Amino acid sequence: MKKALSLLIIISLLILGACSKETTGGEKGGSKEKAEAKVMKLAVVTPDERSLTKGLRKFGEIVESKTNGSIKVEVYPNGQLGGDREVFESLQLGNIQGSTMSTGPVGQFSPTFNVFDLPFLFPDAETAYEILDGPIGTDLLKELESQNVVGLNFWENGFRHLTNNAKEVKSVSDVKGLKIRTLENDLHIDYWRGLGANPTPMAFTELFAGLQQGVVDGQENPAGNVTTSKFYEVQKYLTKTGHVYNASLFMISKGFWDTLSDEEKEAVTEAAEEAKDYQRELNQQEDTEAFKLLEEKGMTITELSDAEKEKFFEAAKPVYDKYSSKIGEKFVDQLLDEIQKKK
Description:
Layout: H1 2-26, E1 38-43, H2 51-66, E2 71-76, H3 84-93, E3 98-102, H4 103-107, H5 125-132, H6 135-142, E4 149-159, E5 161-164, E6 179-182, H7 186-194, E7 198-201, H8 207-212, E8 218-221, H9 223-228, E9 237-240, E10 245-253, H10 254-257, H11 262-296, E11 300-303, H12 306-314, H13 317-327, H14 329-341
Parallel strand pairs: 1-2, 1-3, 6-7, 6-8, 9-11
Antiparallel strand pairs: 3-10, 4-10, 5-8, 5-9
Helix pairs in contact: 2-11, 13-14
């Protein structure tokens, strides 16, 4: 009886061992390759057609390839997961793993980033690239870690221009009394108030309805946003103010970042750089094509005279005075000096 029982136990162990080997063998090298992919949800407020959204999709393609599928990327455009503020808060909590958004909304969480929203700071995109990709931009990205967010680099939203549905704006005096939607950022609000407008902060996801229903007369955004969001359907006039160059931060939730292996972090960083170059080039093309499209759609495009441009710039000086002290006067002076050297 004892011999029979011992034999039965041995046979059972052999069967279990064989099953275990079969399972392991089926994994072709162990459980690591069959580990569930890490899902990276990327949220953005812009539509599918916008260069920022296309940049996120390009990033997804690159990172999935570089990690052999250990990271799976899902892109949620059109504000599906919320406006900029909600998305940033979700990044902090780790509910969303990545996003790209303008520095304006980020400045409400990390005030130093407001420096890039000072009106007429950058004379052109090339100067902006040199600053953002250099030591100043790199140092600023590190500040996001205090917000539980990892900043990887700066993409591009572009130069912002004014549109409205009330009248053609040829001068600063024409802005007076217009209800203008602005970013949810105090610096932007103060600038437009200084021009005599009635600034109204509003999430981008609510903007088309706000324009359509007359809650606001106008808004200010890069031309690419005007076309892809079809603001031309509810706006008659565009004035090329170019008052702010909008860099767009590409960020990862620190909670998600900390789950990545060193190899995966390297892949994500490299993919972010490749996607940045792709997105910037695409955005430049988009900007050029946008003005042509807006004219075809019947919008009146207005170029400011040099004298009026100077008046728009003069109106920005109180904003510089107020926010330089909040951002750090030494840092603002350093940035202005660097920009001057590159002119």
